[in-house]
Design a protein that fits this description.
Blueprint lengths: L3 H5 L9 E10 L7 E5 L4 E5 L8 H15 L7 E6 L1 H6 L4 E4 L2 E4 L3 E7 L8 E5 L13 H11 L7 E6 L7 E5 L33 H12 L3 H9 L10 H13 L1 H15 L15 E2 L19
Helix pairs in contact: 4-5, 6-7
Length: 309
């Protein structure tokens, strides 16, 4: 178990990367049991704690995944290091984990936070789009790229995205979230996984790919400077992972050299598991599902409505 001093030790980070937790809002769904927290920059973050039930590697995966996706230009939310004080833990006993043996408290220290997109002031965000709205995505081609990325990065969970709109639902942008199960999952397993990283919405798991688009994405991934991969691993706080993080970087580089073979086998297996039909897709009559917060008191500082600021 790392010491409390180690939990506050950091590799060199850019200014403004660390924010402080000031207000617990509510728990969020998911196996790592994250929480929604307002921080010192007056923004909301979905925070994954380093002592979460799935293990600290989840945080390292989030950092590595977000940094890699940013390099390749995918739309992602911003992430920060969230500092949680002893007074915050004491004042917010509900910020605890539910386990088979009872509850355990969040530990004081530094944790991973990704900006909560539901707090955007200039638009709305949705978890799902009805069938008739899928063609309004401004970046639908990114779904091919993110699928190839997830095969390369051995993603062992469904890819998730949220849909942002700022023009009264005329167009949407998919933003990709939740990278905790990249690189073989929280245990960093090396075996190959198939058909697990498909998007939750089957409409985006295309059976027919434009080979030119696929080749363009592969070339983009192959153009990465390998030293960047290792550099990113050095930016992860040491207590956010257990094991050899450089082995993760080595595996990425090795898998990149065999990406076309991985794609070929994935495509063959996907054809077996994801044969789409009109009935398989989401019902086109499904209404827009807005990503909103339940009313747990004002999310604004001071009095006000329960809408996110």
């Amino acid at each position: 178990m790392p010491s409390s001093v180690a939990r506050f030790s950091l590799p060199p980070v850019s200014p403004g990367l660390v924010v402080h937790a000031v207000q617990f809002i509510r728990k969020m769904g998911g196996g790592s049991q994250p929480a929604l927290i307002r921080c010192s920059d007056d923004r909301l973050y979905v925070v994954k704690f380093f002592n979460n039930p799935q293990g600290s590697n989840v945080l390292a995966n989030e950092v590595l995944g977000n940094e890699l996706l940013n390099i390749f230009g995918f739309p992602i939310p911003r992430w920060k290091i969230v500092s949680i004080s002893s007074s915050f833990v004491k004042e917010n006993p509900e910020a605890a984990f539910e386990t088979s043996s009872g509850t355990s408290s969040v530990e004081v220290g530094l944790h991973f936070g990704v900006e909560f997109l539901g707090a955007e002031k200039t638009g709305q965000i949705y978890e799902w789009l009805p069938g008739g709205f899928a063609n309004r995505l401004s970046n639908r081609g990114d779904f091919v790229g993110i699928y190839i990325f997830d095969i390369w990065a051995n993603h062992c969970d469904n890819r998730q995205s949220l849909f942002l709109t700022k023009d009264e639902n005329i167009s949407f942008q998919a933003v990709f979230v939740d990278n905790g199960h990249l690189f073989g999952g929280p245990e960093w397993k090396q075996q190959r996984r198939y058909c697990e990283s498909a998007h939750l919405d089957k409409r985006f798991n295309l059976n027919e790919w434009n080979e030119g688009i696929v080749e363009g994405w592969i070339s983009r991934f192959e153009s990465i400077d390998f030293s960047l991969v290792f550099q990113i691993t050095q930016n992860v706080p040491r207590f956010w992972y257990g094991g050899d993080i450089e082995r993760v970087a080595d595996s990425l580089i090795q898998r990149l050299s065999m990406l076309r073979a991985l794609l070929s086998e994935e495509k063959a297996r996907r054809m077996k598991f994801f044969k789409l039909s009109q009935d398989d897709c989401l019902d086109a009559r499904l209404s827009l599902h807005c990503f909103e917060l339940p009313c747990h008191g004002s999310l604004r500082k001071g009095a006000g409505s329960c809408a996110a600021s």
